[in-house]
Design a protein that fits this description.
It is built from eight helices and two strands; from the N terminus they run ααααββαααα. The C terminus is likely disordered. A two-stranded antiparallel sheet has the order 1-2. It is an all-alpha fold. The chain is 62% helix and 2% strand. It folds into two domains: 106 residues, Orthogonal Bundle (Rna Polymerase Sigma Factor, Chain: A), CATH 1.10.1740; 98 residues, Arc Repressor Mutant, subunit A, CATH 1.10.10.
Length: 204
């Protein structure tokens, strides 16, 4: 936890409570963290993508402040911000038909993930569809992957937010990453041996 986390959480509550000036102060505190998340997303995009991290931050922020999501704390805010950015990029890819196999799209690498298939890659839409299928089997596992992989949220914060142990988060990451690699490798639905436990714990 950084020293700004409690202040961000307080400002979130103040802003959602209608306090004047809270939104501007909140944006000043979260901008750098949101920009870092946007850069992570854009690193996986094609170099000539029409969106840039700054534009992605602004679009995501606008969607967040116009939504009716009750943001609980800094971790929740950053997780939802990251998911919103991914949704923006997926929508952009679909509407502009910019990401196609063999059409120069930058591939999504599962860097920083343990395992023998370190070089496994896929495009954004493949990854989005795979995560959607995973969420249908285990929503919590998919959310953990999104929070850690896309949002850069540390495991301890994910565990605290979801009300589970760090060991549970790490176990879900291991299972989810293995499943996702197989899914992307075969490009069709592959169920992990033994399946997933269903979970009713959602970020929203």
């Amino acid at each position: 936890m950084t020293e700004t986390d409690p202040e961000i959480t307080q400002l979130l509550h103040a802003w959602q409570g209608g306090e004047a000036g809270a939104e501007d102060r909140l944006m000043a505190l979260v901008y750098a963290q949101m920009h870092a998340i946007a850069a992570r997303h854009m690193h996986r995009e094609r170099p000539d993508h029409t969106l840039r991290p700054t534009a992605l931050v602004h679009e995501a922020y606008l969607r967040l402040i116009r939504s009716d999501i009750a943001l609980q704390d800094r971790t929740h805010f950053m997780a939802i911000a990251s998911l919103t950015m991914r949704r923006i990029l997926v929508d952009h890819a679909k509407s502009n038909q910019r990401i196609k196999r063999g059409d120069g799209a930058r591939k999504v690498s599962l860097e920083d993930w343990d395992g023998p298939q370190q070089s496994q890659m896929s495009d954004l839409l493949d990854l989005d569809m795979a995560l959607t299928r995973l969420s249908q089997q285990d929503a919590r596992c998919a959310k953990i992957l999104e929070m850690v992989y896309f949002g850069g949220v540390v495991c301890e914060d994910v565990a605290s937010f979801l009300g589970v142990s760090p060991a549970t988060v790490n176990r879900s990451l291991k299972i989810g990453k293995a499943w996702l690699r197989r899914e992307l490798d075969t490009n069709h639905e592959v169920h992990p041996e033994g399946g997933f436990r269903s979970s009713d714990q959602e970020i929203r």
